[in-house]
Design brief:
Chains: A alpha/beta (about 290), B mainly alpha (about 220), C alpha/beta (about 850)
Strand content of chain C: 15-25%
Largest interface: A-B, 53 and 58 residues
Radius of gyration of chain C: 32 Å
Helix content of chain A: 40-55%
Largest sheet of chain C: 5 strands, parallel
Distance between the termini of chain A: 31 Å
Largest sheet of chain A: 4 strands, parallel
CATH topology of the largest domain in chain A: Rossmann fold
Oligomer: heterotrimer
Strand order of the largest sheet of chain C: 10-7-6-18-31
Strand order of the largest sheet of chain A: 2-1-3-4
Helix content of chain C: 25-40%
CATH class of the largest domain in chain A: Alpha Beta
Amino acid sequence: MAKSYAYYPGCTMSSTAKEYDMSTRAVFAHLGLELHEIQDWNCCGATHSAIYKEDARFLLSLRNLALAEDQGFDTVIAPCSACYKNLRRAAKLSEADKSICTRVNEEMTEHYSCAGHVTVLHPLYMFIQDFGLDALKKRVVRPLTGIKIASYYGCMLTRPLDEFDSAERPTGLDRLVKALGAEPVEYDYKAKCCGGALALSHTGSTVRMTSKILASAKERGAESVTLACPMCHMALDMYQSKAERAVGQPLNLPVLFFTQWMGLALGIEPEQLGLKRHMVPTAGMVARVIG
Amino acid sequence: MTSEMDPFLAEVMKLRGGKDVLECYQCGTCSASCPALPDMIHGPRRIMYMIQNGMEQEVLSSPDIWRCVSCYSCMNRCPRGIEITVLFSELRRLAIQKGYVDDKEAEFGQAFTVTLAQHGRQFEPELLARYYLRVWDVLSLLRMVPLGLKMLVKGKLPFAPEHIQEPQALQEAGVIPPAKDLPGGGWIDQVIALMITVLGFMDALVKLASGKKEAQHG
Amino acid sequence: MTENNDNNEELRIGVYVCHCGSNIGSVVTVPDVVEYAKTLPNVVVAKEHKYMCSDPGQSMIKKDIHDFRLNRLVVGACTISMHEPTFRTVLSDEGLNPFFFEMANIREHSSWVHAHEKPEATLKAKELVAAAVAKVSFSQPLEMFEVPVTRRALVIGGGIAGISAALDLADMHIPTYLVDKSPSIGGRMAQLDKTFPTMDCSICIEAPKMVDVGKSKSITLMTYSEVKEVEGYIGNFKVKVERKPRYVLEDRCTGCGLCSEVCPISVPNFEFEEGLGPRKAIYVPLVQAVPAIFTIDMDACIECFKCVEACGSLQAIDFAQKPETVELEVGAIIAATGLDMWDPTPLEEYGFGLFDNVTTMMEIERLHCAGGPTVGNFVRPSDNQLPKTLGLIQCVGSRDKRYNEYCSGFCCMYTIKNAMLLKWLYPEMDITIFRIDIRTPGKTYEEFYERARQAGIHFVQGRPAEIREDPVTKNLTVLTYNAALDRQMEYEFEMVGLATAAIPSEGVAELARALTVPIDTHGWFLESHPKLKPIDSSTEGVYLAGSAQGPKDIPQSVAQGSAAAGRAARVLNAGKWQIDPIVAYVDPKRCLNVNPKSKCTQCAQACPYGAVINLPGTGQPSQIIPAKCHGCGTCVAECPANAITQWHFTDGQILAQMHTLLADKPEEKVLAFTCRWCSGLGADNAGVSHFQYPANTRNIMVMCSGRIDPDFVMEAFRLGAGAVLVSGCHTQDCHYITGRQKADVRLEKIMTQLERMGMTPGRFRSEEVSATEGAKWSRIMTEMSEVVTGLGPEGVRAENAKMLPQLEKRLARVREGLDAARVLDIFEARLQGIKTEVQQAYEREKKE
């Protein structure tokens, strides 16, 4: 197949979410898809980009798209939902309003055409739309049979409403999880905010929101949670002990990136998937899959 | 329009997400959807009303705009199509420009952006240092230590920053104001520089150690 | 100095300039305009008056017509929308043809918008008066057309509005066809349990009317039928109706129902019961169906023929029945197509379609109706139990830019009514209504709301953000921000009802096209004038009634039904009807199709009214059917041979106005063509709102921007114009349906050609201005004026000079129009005289 994608890792991939990076690269390689890291990519600015200047919001994203365009790519894979949202929105708005494009190009050394040549795609939706869940199912060698997985979408993946999934009741991750052989768990908080944006400045808020999500999933019988964003992972995994204290009960919900589940199901060695880097131990889940 | 519009309202209407604020008919869908409402004083519904009525001080000095978690729930459901999330984000900049700010998230956002502008990418140790040196929230810092240590052990905290080729281009593009206009710039930068040197040293040591280990194991 | 016109009759023009109190007089120096008018060709008298439209003003004109033997009249005053009829009547009262009148708008287009440029405003007034004089010099005496009227009416839609209209028409002994696409008439009202605020049983008050319709000797009921094609014009419509096969013979079925009893197939009754109850494959949608004739749903029928057996000797069932097309001839049509209820599935946060116990208000209506699927036992879907708690949510899909921006108007009352009914039936039920506002605009509606509160129904101000379901109990949690308590709240209910938006009936868009009646942005039929003509459509002879024109309640629908019957009756009882003579006319000698080898169809393609008899390849020239022609002039502009003219807006007349307005200092001017409707009214609106813009602008009005021949634009630049604007309605609002669209295509081509000739962008613009966009009008005028002053007269002259060779080439074409050559010759002859006079006049003005 050898389809070639530009890869925009985002700042967490080399540090707090290194396991997401590892598992994503491993899965792509295993499926014969090429990922080429965009050279000289910069931080997308998360939710803070425009704190001093409005157009910085666009500049930080469009610079990356300009680099991708320049380096000959038509699709950028952005695994972090926040980066994905930022890059994708910037692309759309600058294509619709050429004055943004003109202004930002004036400030940048790089030049972005704003002509829609570069599409920004989250790896989840790449697998669902381009690769296809049926094709994925065929490659599963270790089905995740009997594992009850609660899919957690967070906010940036599906809102504001885009073309891939419902913003209110999304199903993409659930369908992927099902294709891998697991049992998706329905719960009310699957698309509610974890509060990760305020994780350092207002930890209490994050813990409150995160604990509701985990408690809701637990109540509906989830054994594990899967997600697609490093910030959400930080909140649900690293803060899970704080969440436990907030709800007053143990949670024991290992939180895996969907690419890690994919890796396990596709037969990739666990060492390549960074499964030891989590706060909530994943060994139990790994054992369930591998035996 | 020939009547005089309140200057704050006029200013907000020029912000991205602000052009439709007058259409808000106070249905309350936004405040109902907001997961951060318990942390806010007003909530997006009342903030819209106050903007419509030129209440600049109440709006820009509120913690509300800093407690927004950018979940887009309000904006996705607003029947008037008002881009509430985007507007809240823009109000942050206005609040800083006009000197209203008194929230830790404001300090975090600025620490984040300043760090990003130094390297072109994030560098968590510097981000944390800049943040805690601004807020002097020793209690929070201490509470984070257990987690921080765990993260260190799991290799989730880098020792050396990654760079883009020309980070100064970002500053020239105005992503952050010039260093002289940033609060507390001088001495914080010096502390950071020292920290980076120390971390770099430690990083080198770690690499050397693991290199020796590899050599030993062949 | 007078000239003779076509009939060798001496032209004697009277010019009257109005002060309009101080509206005109305070800016425009009226006496100077009068003096100037005296110098114009063929003007024998020019006077002023403070209020020309008043009785003394009109009397003055009438006296002058007599004393000075005037045969043409020009009034410089306000907008034609106000007083064109007034002064036309003055002429006809004096035995003169009313089309010998022209009006120069020196109020909305001068004094009101150039208040700070008095000398320039006065000059503009002079030139606009001169242009009116020029146009009227070439006017033809036009007579209104008379067409016979077929004294029969067609009502499309058998809901309460259609029923009301049909019954009124029947009372006037006007034979009426009532066509409905359902097997029975009754519409939405038949589905209701009780009606607000009287709490009458809905079907009980409607059924007698339905029966009256069925019994009436004047009404021919055609149910299970749809209007497919409409041809013709007011008084003379030919309508093709498709009668869908019921497989039951209407003249034999007695409605006994034995067939239905034996039919083995049951399917959900979506037609009437919102799918909550069953019906058989052979069915009537409701027990009180009119006509009481059964219909077979072939998608469900298994052709076991048990029904045929049960029908026995009546032999009313015919499986061989085929669709039948019937052609009706009627004089007037009433569109009463009603409304559908919006499906709230897209509003995902409320979970309709996912959660069993989230229902629509219409479903709730059927559930508590004694004639409904549960014989009035109100139960919730998941477990057929009576819910103890009920939540009702307003504005679901209404007032929501994501779905339907408008307010559906009756839902507040509708929901309160349902709540009241349930409270009467089940006093212990806890009912809460969630709302943004409560709208009770009708008589005793507010008192009804008071009673609801008194009955203990809770009201929460707060539009719910989300509904969640308990997977075990199937109860619902509604999350709302309660404004009064100022906090987020979670309300638990056993059942939730959604007050969904009203949307236009399915199939209305196709019907609108068949009727050549525009629909608005939301799909409701567009009325001719929202304030003063809410029942007329823009197509003469087609009237609107009920929710077809916009969502409304029962009394409004009944009122509109009667109103539409009245509007239709004035035509149908008149025997004959007058048609405006501002129509197109094909010169049979110039039409290309005179040559049998030519297969030109341009005029027919240009016409949205089917007013052209176009027979390509037969050697017969095209012909316009005057009664069908609405006078847009699009075919005139589209004709490749310049063979078509439009009376009262001939090429010659338009050229005469252009030559007059561009005679003096054309390079400093912006020449604007406006249509009679949206953009003309928009320009007037700028005046009414006193939006100021520069006075170096001049207007020429045509009926539709579709009339604007590219040659006019080129000719304007050849004459040296600084800038030219063609403005019309927004494409979807075009008064003549497709005129604007056709103009756009033509004007795009000119834009490209002019750019290639090196013209500065902004000197030619094609714009869409609606009747309320006065601000937009003044902005466009200002921008174009700035382009002209920016280039300066030298700059403009230089560009025009460069374009001149190509523009001169077009002059031969320009002369081809019916009276164009004659007009241009006259103007060439006058050139010396007029220019000097105008110039002198202007110099004098400036010195003062």
